[in-house]
Amino acid sequence: MSKDKGFVSEITPQAEDFSRWYIDVIKKAELMDYSPVRGCIVFRPEGYEIWENIQKELDRRFKETGHRNAYFPMFIPESFFQKEKEHVEGFNPELPFVTEAGGEILEERLAVRPTSETMFGHMYSKWIQSYRDLPMLINQWANVVRWEKRTLPFLRTSEFLWQEGHTAHEDEADARKETMTMLDVYTDFVENVLAIPVIKGQKTPSEKFAGAVDTYSIEAMMKDGRAVQAGTSHYLGTNFAVAFDIKYLSRENNLEYCHTTSWGVSTRLIGALIMVHGDDRGLVMPPKVAPTQLIMIPIGPPKTREQVIAKTDELYAQLKAAGVRVRVDDRSDVSPGWKFNEYEMRGVPIRLELGPRDLENGVCVLVSRITGEKKQVPLDNIVAEVEAALEAAHNDMYNRALQFREENFYSVETLDELKASADEKRGFALAGWCGSDACEKQVKDETGYTSRNIPFETAETKTKCLVCGDDAKHTVVFAKAY
Amino acid sequence: MSKDKGFVSEITPQAEDFSRWYIDVIKKAELMDYSPVRGCIVFRPEGYEIWENIQKELDRRFKETGHRNAYFPMFIPESFFQKEKEHVEGFNPELPFVTEAGGEILEERLAVRPTSETMFGHMYSKWIQSYRDLPMLINQWANVVRWEKRTLPFLRTSEFLWQEGHTAHEDEADARKETMTMLDVYTDFVENVLAIPVIKGQKTPSEKFAGAVDTYSIEAMMKDGRAVQAGTSHYLGTNFAVAFDIKYLSRENNLEYCHTTSWGVSTRLIGALIMVHGDDRGLVMPPKVAPTQLIMIPIGPPKTREQVIAKTDELYAQLKAAGVRVRVDDRSDVSPGWKFNEYEMRGVPIRLELGPRDLENGVCVLVSRITGEKKQVPLDNIVAEVEAALEAAHNDMYNRALQFREENFYSVETLDELKASADEKRGFALAGWCGSDACEKQVKDETGYTSRNIPFETAETKTKCLVCGDDAKHTVVFAKAY
Q1: Cα dihedral: B189, B190, B196, B199 (round 10)
Q2: Interface contact flag, B147 A4, Cβ < 8 Å
């Protein structure tokens, strides 16, 4: 692992400056670096490997739910964006354009894709003729670009990596079912793989995807109380089908428009898992996506070194064969104490300390990054011990994140109450909303809180709008968001 | 599987028009479609899945040889290309430029990456300080763009997918070792996974990568006798290290330039495997990357249907569990004969026909797409039978491709001989070459043949240059190339 020029020697405490803490840990742990292009980062191997593990888990789930991957061109003719009115309004301000190529000025400018509803729409109109071709269920893993004014590594960058699913269906019921299936896939993944509890719900009209009929999201709470939208799933109705002429011959022999959906998650999940789990010592990686799940550190005096390393290698081979992502740090020019700090900072969930006396007694010391708990474990059962410790670490992380969210989830009746709490508290506020854009906008203007979503499940149902006091149509989660 | 507007009902025979045959099969088998952007194709699921299988196999090999993946920005400031003289000359004519973004004209134009030596170089100069940071071994899977005048699906498209490895080393010896290791990884992969025999060798100076000291390639022969460069590995010397200031403190405490390498393969491998293995009935997929390795087709009269399908499902589950990529086509509205043709056209290596009488006798019929051989195999040993058949199919394909190459590999003494043979023959020609650019250019101008590489191993060593008759410095493989 290489050293960095401008190496960050200290990590700013979270309570002092959460944003500084975030930048300190991701730089120090070598997850990313800034690039010479505005708002674009380099995903370094330690950061990219998290994404690879995310991809593996999600891709399996997509395939199990009947989807196949494909790859569509990243350049999109400018005219395509004009075809869906809301879509162009939503994305036009953020588009980069290729205007010259191969030494010539292009006749039509090409946008670099911010999302691919238009390109999929164009191709689907060629591929879909009959109900027999439906549903069409395609996903792509790709880079996308949105020329953002304010950027933050992983959470908001000009170029980022994501997956975008695009599906076409015979009718609304089937498309809505797909929309919910994928929201459930995301929920399962984020909760059970990333150990992040989420709130499932529907976006308000002002926050929905440009061109969607309905947008659904999962929202997660960071350790500074802010929200991150961790995944979205859109029911697009026939909006893109009409714009791109995606029609099929129905079972009743009528020519009908398809109902389409799209859904995506991105590399912002990396930012989210850091901000949910990290602490003042550095990263805390969820075991199921951690590049290194287990670090083994041989200790003891030089004269026992050979024998300790031999035993370590033997255990390493066993763990590796069992599928554990394990590394050994047997360098002799850095102290065990330095290594302990280093791998704590990098967020490795489990550490094994292997000393000569313990090994003689057939045990070693297992230390949890999450709880700090140390315990002796028998070597002859090492794989099961490590697997149980990883499972426990995942559960600890999820429960801590859930507890934190519950402690920072409150309820307000009026805008004044929200204003007051926005100054002293952090977290998510539950409030009633009449459904008007004006009231929603007033909340945003006066508090900086935006509506995150209208949760599917909530312990409390509000009856009055926090702004105008009229009857509440919805109970909404408001928060400051990344 | 969807039907296509403009569905190709017939496949042009290879002998009649090889290019037409190629387009016919890739369209009919739904591997790709043309996009509305010039020279950019859509990789449809059937085509993209080949790439996914290629990625899986290669990625494992990269990691086993010590590399890690990362992701670098696709936009590269124009000024970066100016820093390495040969590099800018080589790539400038093909660059697309983003000149506007977010509604504003950019101060510096951004190229969309054609390859990333410059961006890696810039970042490596920040990350590498000491010999302890070396070697730095990073790969990325990415899309790249080269604005090509003449395009051909998979083989030459404006946007394509590839991997690019970029490594930095202490000295020439270590960098040259890496260059050869990766050429060997490619050779192993292309021969043992794609079943394509290749010729390993060094590119002549006029054909080397823009900015490299030496370029090495593997070259494969298509069924029309043309060559496809299937992979390249470059020793870049200190060219990019000097241009981007990639220096390290050596073991002797001196500040030294790194020696760097780069190496890549792309989605053109999909085109190559089609052109090497396909025949007049359609695709023939190498078993190790085939999206479907085995198709199971239940046959027999309606009254036995239920029982046949029950048994098919049971066998399917066994094969699936064993890791075979198997599908069942139990549709009752298309005939077995239609299905046989369909999956032959799609190149599925093995077909199982499951009829009621055979099943009663505990057997089924296994048909090889490659040899056409049919044989009865016992059901109680089906996994081993299928695995053996897939292995045999791979070997048959490799041997046929090798035999074809040997039959179309000839030797010439003079340019006149090459000119004559270029008209009547197809294939690769071995000839002596004095080493001058002028002679090489004359071969190209008068025959359309280009030097493919200087093979590491050759049965014959030429002593005279085919053009000028001077002493030959090298024995070179010449061919028409895609």
Answers
A1: -110
A2: no
Cβ-defined contact of A69 to B49 (cutoff 8 Å)? yes
Query: Residue A257 belongs to a domain with what CATH number?
Result: 3.30.930.10
**Any CB–CB contact under 8 A between B17 and chain A?**
no
Domain count, chain B: 3
- Say yes or no for a CB contact (<8 Å) between A127 and B4: yes
- Nearby residues of A459 by Cβ (< 8 Å), 6 or more positions away: none
- Could you report the per-residue pLDDT of A178-197, keeping only the tens digit for each? 999 999 999 999 999 999 99
Give me the residue from B5, B97, B132 closest to A101, CB to CB.
B97
Domain harbouring A472, CATH code? 3.30.110.30
CATH code, domain with A347? 3.40.50.800
What was the pLDDT predicted at A1? 39
Is some CB atom of chain A closer than 8 A to the CB atom of B128? yes
Among B393, B425, B453, give the residue marking a domain's end. Answer: B393
A232 with A363, same domain? no
Domain boundary, last residue among A331, A362, A390: A390
Is the same domain home to B195 and B51? yes
Of the candidates A195, A227, A216, the one whose C-alpha atom is nearest the C-alpha of residue A402 is A195
Judge contact between B125 and B246, C-beta under 8 A.
yes
Residue A225 resides in a domain: yes
In Å, what is the CA distance from B409 to each residue of A10, B69, B191, B202, B431?
65, 38, 18, 18, 11
Shared domain for A230 and A267, answered yes or no, is yes
Domain-embedded: residue A285 = no
Whether the CB-CB separation of A115 and A94 falls below 8 Å is answered with: no
Q: Is B236 on the interface with A (CB under 8 A)?
A: no
Residue A224, classed as helix, strand or coil, is coil
Q: How far apart are the first and last CA of chain B?
A: 30
Parts of chain A with a pLDDT under 50 = 1-8
User: Is there a single domain that holds both residue A59 and residue A111?
Assistant: yes
Nearest to A147 among B45, B102, B161 (CB): B102
| Three-class secondary structure assignment of B380-427 | HHHHHHHHHHHHHHHHHHHHHHHHHHHHCEEECCCHHHHHHHHHHCCC
Residue B316 counted as domain residue: yes
In a domain, B456, yes or no: yes
Pick from B42, B70, B110: which is nearest to A123 by CB?
B42
**A82: which chain B residues are within 8 Å (Cβ-Cβ)?**
none
Q: What ipTM was predicted for this assembly?
A: 0.96
Question: Which residue of A70, A76, A122 is in closest CB contact with B45?
Answer: A70
Rounded Cα gap, residues B481 and B199, in angstroms: 14
- Contact yes or no for A123 and B73 at CB 8 A: no
Is any Cβ of chain B less than 8 angstroms from the Cβ of A110? yes
The stretch B270-281 carries a mean pLDDT of: 98
- The DSSP element (H or E) to which B125 belongs, if any, is helix B117-127
Domain range enclosing A315: 294-390
How far is Cα A236 from Cα A27, in angstroms, rounded to an integer? 39
- Smallest Cβ distance to B2: which of A93, A128, A161? A128
Q: In this structure, are A227 and A136 located in the same domain? A: yes
Say whether both B94 and B138 belong to one domain: yes
Rounded to whole angstroms, what are the CA distances from A59 to A139, A165, B52? 9, 11, 11
User: Do the Cβ atoms of B159 and A73 come within 8 Å?
Assistant: yes
Neighbours of A106 (CB within 10 A): 19
Report CB contact under 8 Å: A99, B94: no
Which residues in chain A touch residue B107, judged by CB atoms under 8 angstroms apart?
none
Q: Do A123 and B33 touch (CB under 8 A)?
A: yes
Q: Which of residues 282-301 of B touch A (CB under 8 A)?
A: none
What is the pLDDT, as a whole number, of residue B254? 97
> Using a CB-CB distance cutoff of 8 angstroms, which residues of chain B are in contact with residue A249?
none
Across B55-60, average pLDDT:
98
